[in-house]
Design a protein that fits this description.
Strand content: 25-35%
Number of strands: 10
Order of helices and strands: HEEHHHEEHEEHEHEEHE
Largest sheet: 4 strands, antiparallel
Strand order of the largest sheet: 8-9-7-10
Distance between the termini: 26 Å
Structural class: alpha+beta
Oligomer: single chain
Number of helices: 8
CATH class of the largest domain: Alpha Beta
Length: 221
């Protein structure tokens, strides 16, 4: 899946000279936790997070009076507290690549640029979650099946042939080589719900032919 199809396109931004107080108010009003910082040429020069604002805010134990505090907050600029030269990603990159960067770098959002280097969107954990939900098909409910299969050509086809024999409709197929011994892979399938008797027959056949790790009726409704 490509980022440009999933990113948030209407990006709220601030410029480096915006006051911290104004940026904090904007994040609160819009219900967001990060703001790309762009210069007068539209080039991204930093990222401001709610954590940056909190760390720069005076302690509750400050001895400043309200007027001094208001003046201090109005004088602190975004450029003084933002994270400069932020990591970015292209709108033609994959969502999986974006998720890997966010995970490895321990960041919760990435500005998205086009090939011309222009800011065209933002990817956050929320967008990544939406993709995960989409590719797993959880909103379609049904049955999720976990199998451990030999990592050999044709093994998945055999499973699909078995499903086809029971007229099962496949919603999604995912595979993983993590947490399994060498020479095997885990396959996770989601199928549409069917009559109980048909499901019982399918489960019985899968259990007899393969290493059935789990069989779960899976729905958020």
């Amino acid at each position: 899946m490509i980022i440009k199809d999933w990113m948030t396109k209407d990006v709220i931004t601030v410029d480096p000279e915006t006051s911290m107080m104004r940026a904090a108010k904007l994040m609160k009003e819009k219900g967001i936790r990060r703001l790309p910082v762009v210069d007068d040429k539209g080039k991204i020069v930093g990222m401001l997070s709610d954590r940056d604002v909190k760390e720069a805010s005076p302690s509750k134990a400050t001895t400043l009076d309200v007027h001094e505090l208001y003046y201090l907050l109005s004088e602190i600029k975004v450029k003084n507290i933002m994270s400069p030269n932020p990591l970015t990603i292209l709108d033609t990159d994959t969502v999986v690549k974006c998720a890997a960067i966010m995970h490895d770098k321990k960041i919760s959002g990435l500005p998205v640029l086009n090939e011309q280097g222009e800011l065209v969107g933002i990817m956050t954990q929320n967008e990544v979650y939406r993709v995960l939900l989409s590719i797993t098909g959880i909103y379609h409910g049904g049955i999720q099946i976990g199998l451990k299969l030999p990592d050999q050509r044709g093994t998945l086809k055999e499973v699909l042939d078995c499903l086809r024999g029971h007229k099962a409709r496949v919603i999604s197929i995912l595979t993983s080589y993590d947490k399994v011994e060498e020479g095997y892979r885990q396959v996770f399938l989601r199928v549409m719900d069917m009559e109980k008797s048909v499901l019982n027959e399918l489960k019985k056949e899968l259990s007899e032919k393969y290493d059935l790790m789990f069989w779960v009726r899976d729905s958020i409704n």
